[in-house]
Amino acid sequence: MTVPTKQSRLPARLRTMDRRQKTLAAVLGGLAILAVVFVLLSGGGGAIEGVNSNPVVRTTPTPTVTSTTPPETGQAFEGKDPFQPLVVAVPAGPSGSPAPTPTPTGSVTGVNGGNNSSSAVTVTLLDIRKQSGKLVATVDVNGKDYNVSEGQTFANNFRVLSLSSSCGTFVFGDERFSLCIGQQVNK
Question: What CA dihedral angle connects 131, 133, 138 and 144, to 10 degrees?
Answer without folding.
Answer: -60
